[in-house]
Amino acid sequence: MQVFENGEHVIIWGDAIKALSSNIPDCSVDLIFADPPYNIGKNFSGRKDKWESEEVYLQWCYEWLNLCAQKLKDTGSFYLMSATQSMPYFDIYLRDKVYILSRIVWYYDSSGVQAKKYYGSLYEPILFCVKNKNKYTFNADDILVEAKTGAKRRLIDYRKPVPTLYNTQKVPGNVWEFPRVRYRMDEYENHPTQKPVALLERMILASSNPGDIVLDPFSGTFTTSFVAKKLGRKSIGIEIEEEYVRIGLRRLHIQTHYKGEELKREPRSYEVKHYSERQQLRLFERG
Fold first, then answer.
1. What pTM, to 2 d.p., does this model score?
2. pLDDT digits (tens), the chain, 287 positions
3. Which residues does residue 10 pair with via DSSP β-bridges, in sequence order?
4. What residues contact 36, with CB distance under 8 A and at least 6 apart?
5. Is 18 helix (H, G, I), strand (E, B) or coil?
6. Domains and CATH numbers, the chain
């Protein structure tokens, strides 16, 4: 296990359960976002996301879920993502450890698998949990969205003593529509299940305050830490794959070089093509 840090941001290269057990004090974290491997066979830099059985996978998950609950402050919040087939188990398992306030659906615009004999998946489930349902952070004003009833339809509520326009803004419901991260997006990194910045912004704005500690035990491309830094929070990111740790070191500006190599975003295929075309044009012009 190796730890990299730069002021208020920490990257732990190692196993999530070991890092949670030995590196994170109990009751020390304000907000946790956990997006674990889904046990569906994805390839993470050569490591297959597939356990020998569903039972073994669930037991592994229960172990780090217990640790996450221990690491949360009494006023802390916890967002958990998972595959649709696993979420019912987690929902039930967590009920005597935290309070589940919302069951959120992250809806996106197209399915990664174009199903032909069943209905393709267009969403991923998220649990919003808190340690104490009577005392937790929820910054409603920071995440308001347009309320179409008041903003577009301009409807009036005649039930009030003085007829009043409906509000033009509201707290989002539990169906969130954000596009998945695509190859041509600026935020794209080389990772099979990268989550969008906008999704993390909503959770971190709502459930933490500047200076709070945000933890992600399965950091991947370190979008959670990236957004936490952008919004003035502290971050701890745990990741087992060295390739993704390199991404985190670069995105968080913790290091400019790693093992003697400069940390740079890999150029996209279309960028290489355009660069080559420009070089050829310059040579033609000189000729």
1. 0.87
2. 999 999 899 999 999 999 999 999 999 999 999 999 999 877 777 778 889 999 999 999 999 999 999 999 999 999 999 999 999 999 999 999 999 999 999 998 876 667 889 888 889 999 999 999 999 999 999 999 988 766 566 777 778 888 887 788 899 999 999 998 887 778 788 778 889 999 999 999 999 999 999 999 999 999 999 999 999 999 999 999 999 999 999 999 999 998 989 888 888 777 665 545 555 555 556 65
3. 5, 236
4. 16, 61, 64, 81, 82, 217, 218
5. helix
6. 2-137+174-286 (3.40.50.150), 140-171 (no CATH)
Contact by Cβ (8 Å): 58, 89 = yes
225-231, long-range: CB < 8 A, 24+ apart:
225/9, 225/11, 225/251, 225/252, 226/197, 226/251, 226/252, 227/197, 227/200, 227/201, 228/9, 228/204, 229/8, 229/9, 231/201, 231/204, 231/205
Give start and end residues of each alpha helix (H) in the chain. 16-23, 54-71, 87-93, 148-151, 197-207, 223-230, 242-251, 269-286
Reduced to 3 states, what is the DSSP secondary structure of residue 57? Answer: helix
Provide the residue type at 62 as one letter: Y
Please tell me the total number of residues recorded for the chain in this structure: 287
d(CA 267, CA 174): 36
